[in-house]
Amino acid sequence: MGRLATLLSTLAHKLALDAYTVALLGMVVLASFLPASGQVAVALGDVTTVAIGLLFFLHGAKLSREAIVAGLMHWRLHLLVLASTFVMFPLMGLAMKPLALGLLTPDLYLGILFLCVLPSTVQSSIAFTAMARGNVAAAVCSASASNFLGIFLTPMLVGALIVSDGGAAGGGSGWSQVLSIVEQLLLPFLAGQLLRPWIGAFIDRHKPVLRYVDQGSILLVVYTAFSESVTEGLWQHVSGWTLFALIGVSCLMLAIALGLATWTSRRAGFSKEDEITIVFCGSKKSLATGVPMAKVLFAPSALGMIILPVMLFHQIQLMVCAVLAQKWARRAE
Fold first, then answer.
1. Per the UniProt record, which residue ranges are transmembrane (predicted)?
2. If DSSP states are collapsed to H, E and C, what string results for 28-83?
3. pLDDT for 293-315, tens place per residue?
4. Are 180 and 106 contacting, i.e. CB atoms less than 8 angstroms apart?
5. Which of 4, 86, 205, 281 could form a disulfide with 142 if both were Cys (CB 3.0 to 4.6 A apart)?
């Protein structure tokens, strides 16, 4: 374990990974060598369900209605971001099927399809937009709307694209999937929104601390998901070459998304500030929303393969967008 810790530390230093990314990698390594099984796995599954509910409750409590109202008037920008997130990405995922199936396993391709139907990130989209001197109010509105609509649109797109393509859904199909999403994700989210007038000030004051609750919930889901997949033979089906190919496919998808978002925003006549918002909000996919949703929507044995593309794309988008944000921040007024 000492050598493993040293290896992770060296990898983080060379790739400039943050502590949270290292923790995600650590959960994958831990599940690979010490997967949860038996009664421990059952107990962790119950704890994970509660943690996911708490995660979406906090998402609802943190969502500022004032910020949304301030950005709602920019409807053309929001429509473009939503079209990029829920139309362009799914179409790109379908178009890449021949390439992906030629390089990856069918299960990993389903993970790519799942990645394509996820909503945008919230925190990093807003942070990068602010760093690059973009339209922050519009970024708050677009990213928040994407996550809220994703609670409905992502399960619908999963049913249309993934289950019909041979993917195994864990929550059943049709209304049973919708009911699972409502019970585990939407109801806690709405409860947080309704209670915001009373707990919003507390949530805003303690955001740095509550961030660890968010991250801890995702780490727990990643560990339980990979534990189940490892016991089902995950690493017997994913070679080093397959991982390399998955990284390449993820980079290609991100490059296409960034290029199309930039080209479309310029053709539509948006300002530079709005272009920055469209690029950052329209090219990202949310790990924080994707991992809990995968837990609800897919069979436990398939989770590892499903969330592996999401985890890799998440890190790649952060590194690339950090470079873009710094570049735009240096531009002249």
1. 12-34, 40-58, 79-96, 108-129, 136-163, 241-263, 302-325
2. HHHHHHCCCCHHHHHHHHHHHHHHHHHHHHHHHHHCCHHHHHHHCCCHHHHHHHHH
3. 888 888 777 778 888 898 889 87
4. no
5. 281
